Amino acid sequence: MLQDPSTKYQPFPVIKLNDRQWPTKTITSPPIWMSTDLRDGNQSLFEPMNAQRKMQMFTMLCEIGFKEIEVAFPAASKTDFDFVRSLIEDDHIPEDVTIEVLTQAREHLIIRTMESLKGAKKAIVHIYNATSKPFRDVVFGMSKDEVINMAVSSVQLVKSLAAKQPETQWTLEYSPETFTATELDFALEICNAVTEAWGATSDNKVILNLPATVEVATPNVYADQIEWMHRHLDRRDSVILSLHPHNDRGTAVAAAELALMAGADRVEGCMFGHGERTGNVDIVTLALNLYTQGVSPGLDFSDIDAIGRTVEECTQLPIHPRHPYVGDLVFTAFSGSHQDAIKKGLAVQKDDAIWAVPYLPIDPKDVGRSYDSVIRVNSQSGKGGIAYLMESEYGVVMPRRLQVEFAGIVQQHTDSNDGEIIAADIWQLFSTTYLDNVVGTTISYKSHRLYDEDGKQGIDLNVDINGESHSLKGQGNGPIDASVQAFKTIGFSVNVRNYEERSMNSTVMGSDANACAFIQITDPNDQAIKEVYGVGIDPSIITASIKALISAVNRMN
Ligand code: KIV
Ligand code: ZN
């Protein structure tokens, strides 16, 4: 049993912002995205990426469309330092991409960091120091003034070193680490001091990054903190207000979304939420959430499976099968009622209409996923999913009552075989239940001849019954009725309850099989009125119908 938390934890204090504006805002354009996969994401891996994996990740991030990428913590490791050098020296940085590097606000680390950037065309230098009370009092033993001084003198050092590397177009980023746990007025004071020290202008903006280093409160609190800063910062037009949410409470995406409504311009995060502890905010989810609201995110996730595979390869960490947008199971419905609704929704969804398919917040095709993976069938599934797979994979559009009958047969199979059944196995089950019995069971079709007699339809029907050839004759209102009468002559009496025929998609089954007939019969002598379906497939619709009748008679007996 969990202990009483009230003696150990306390609620996060409410931010005094009674006229908060963010709750009525919507996000109408994407933020500036900054990927920190190669820094925050990398430092938190069991095995940080080697140079080859870092390059693979960098290339992918550029292809996705990130224009700002934090590539390293160069003063922290030789691998990171060398990686920055190879990006610059071997000319790997696209013209429209700016690399960013992180350093603590400490002199020798800043000097080493600036060295790593020699020759870069553009660079963002990201300095940080922790600002919250526990860090000031316990970790560093510093007063507020000393913490401000640490930040300001570091900015001045970056400025003077930058002046000696004029070939580079410099941007400064400053993070008051542990911002969300810092008194807001102190966070404001230190941020304003940095803006001032850098000499930020509207043409040379400073990036002020306000991290939820540890997520400590509900997302609305982060939004309040950001709106408060947005409204109080000096020279707001000279500042790019950036977010860096972590996911300790599992609400980083929500926090980032609300904080964007609150006035932020930029978001730092990682692919699929990699990063320290529970991760940085997941940029893929954020971007695709925007996409599903009709806002183009400016990042290309049209082949999300390929991106997922590259991220898994580089990080050596698996993506959860239920991870939003990318997980193996997120476009999959096992429940019968979900499958039914999806099938109906997909059937009426027009290419040029607003997306409105039940249970699918995004068209799987938009992220390179196919409908094939949408419907999966297990013992919980109903007729909808089975019908969908039969139609999409094999071109067989089953009548609703056959769907119900066949779903029961599939369920028996999944119950006794314990688990999921794939489309090919469903087709196999369908064939052995409804089609294969036409050949090699009690009665099998051989040939027929139709003729008119006294204004009626006559038939000569050649069948094998238990391996022996029989030639049957019948007359009726049409070919099916004539066949029913022909069977009566040898003691197989049936009533036809329902008949449907469909043409099949020849690309699915091949050009030889293009008509499908469904016949539902009852036994006139059976009090219980057992209804049985038979199915026939043939290039000729008449032959398909006779085969369907034979299939039903076989199943009845
Ligand atoms: O989470 C954090 O606070 C950081 C800073 C270095 C920006 O990663
Ligand atoms: Zn971080």
Automatic annotation (TrEMBL):
Keywords: Amino-acid biosynthesis, Branched-chain amino acid biosynthesis, Leucine biosynthesis, Metal-binding, Transferase. GO terms for biological process: L-leucine biosynthetic process. Pathway: Amino-acid biosynthesis; L-leucine biosynthesis; L-leucine from 3-methyl-2-oxobutanoate: step 1/4. Its EC number is 2.3.3.13. It holds the Pfam family LeuA_dimer. Residues 31-305 form the Pyruvate carboxyltransferase domain. Belongs to the alpha-IPM synthase/homocitrate synthase family. LeuA type 2 subfamily. This is 2-isopropylmalate synthase. It comes from marine sediment metagenome.
